[in-house]
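Issue: ligand-bound run for phosphoenolpyruvate - logging full I/O for the record.

Environment: standard queue, default settings, no custom constraints.

Inputs:
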Amino acid sequence: MTRKPIIAGNWKMNKNYGEAVVLAQAISNRLEKDWLDRVDVIVCPPFIDLKPVKTVFEFDRMNVELGAQNVHWEEAGAFTGEISVGMLKNVGCAFCIVGHSERRTLMGETNEEVNKKAKALIAANMKPIICVGESLAVREAETHEEFVCAQVKAAFAGIPAAQAKSCVVAYEPIWAIGTGRTATPEQAEAMCVAIRQTLAELYDATVAEGMRILYGGSMNPGNVEMLTAQPNIDGGLIGGASLEADSFVDLIKACL
Ligand code: PEP
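Outputs:
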């Protein structure tokens, strides 16, 4: 089965309003519309930049999708500092990252919360990008497959096959995020195979084969081709290299 690749940029807590517009415009200027028939491009700016970034791509009729970096599972109410699925949808978000390792390690996000966020997004027809990945200690203990597959099972608990299909999984080894140290294509592929097998056990082979699994962790124009050449790696979730239009667009071109 051929899966459409995804290049998703996670801008994290970077780019103020003006800088975000400039970056979005620079990306848009470098894209060809027909590339977007062959690769799904998603940008995930900070919350306050979502609307202006969307406006740039809409004005250029460039079919770049918008994603958020986090969401709360409740619809509304007394949750100071949080944002709802409805609010994200209202500004044009189709995707949302959940369970990024920075949120798991720095903000204490649990597997249960990741699952609740994924379910809330699915209920609104939005697509979660579910991040999983092991620490260096877990990798060195050689329990990484068990650890990551348990994260996958927890994230998908109670999500029926029909909805699971719309989800994206991003395998991001924590030791490779923002460190310049990339997993080898073999390491990344082995984990993506294990994730796909877990999805096949949870659902069935057809569902698992149809789902897109990304790699994230110091992906850049120099290593993207080797990584995405692997049969089970369907693109990338990119931090640092998504903050410059040239490198981000080079990553997109590598998936054409
Ligand atoms: C990320 O934060 O999802 C990420 C993969 O970051 P980087 O590309 O900078 O390692």
